Sequence to fold (273 residues):
Amino acid sequence: MQAGQFKLNVLTMETVRALGWDGRRTQWLRAQPQPGACATQGRLRRPDPMSVFERRVAGSPMAIAWEPRHHLSHLSIPEGFMKAASRPTALLVIDVQESFRRRPYWQPQEAPVFLKNTQALIDCCREQAIPVIQIFHQEPGPDAQDPFHPQSGFVRAMPELRLQADAVFYKEVHSALYGKTADGVTLESWLRSHGIEEILVTGIRTEQCCETTTRHASDAGFKVRFVGDATLTFPMQSRTSGRQFSTAEIRERTELVLDGRFAQVVSTAEALG
Fold:
């Protein structure tokens, strides 16, 4: 965890007490990381004494905020414990495909940072045995020259990505949850059959398929983390006012309407923890 960042981890009251907090006063938790494990550092802060509400919800999930290590003394929690405390998660890589490079609105300036962030998430998930799901968008129709047509040759991953997906889905609408495997299994069905409770959303475009997937998944009962800087979009012009919206403005608007309502909006650094 880098200086100045926060990480939320889901713990139960029982787990917290087992680690050393008795519910009556603030205590330091000291746990040493396993060799080579990625550690989360900070300290646990809780009010004194434990409230009636806390006693009533004991044993249910709680969000615990870890303060930046450079401000305070810190604890270290073994990576294995953090995995056990977290809900089952999958990473969605949505529409990161060559088709977009053939569209007139394609702009390459932000692509390198986007691809770097996406790759970092893929690599981290691989190390932690978190499923990585690849979704492609295709538009069947009479025009085989359309870069999103299945026969165009462009419905394939951008070559900068090093990705061996646990499952691949193809969609013809905006929400990735409607995507299907070659056997006709929808992404939503796949996630449920594998016990996935939370998804990390990355891909192209920020305000289109990524935002739509986030809203759909939230309404379907999944927890969602929207990794804003691991999504990519392009400038747009309003049809009514003629105003040009930058990618930063579009991303800001998307994060504004999603955060706290449909998802937890995080950066790549925060998602990596």
Q: What stands out?
A: The longest strand covers residues 223-232. The longest helix spans residues 111-127. The mean pLDDT is 78.
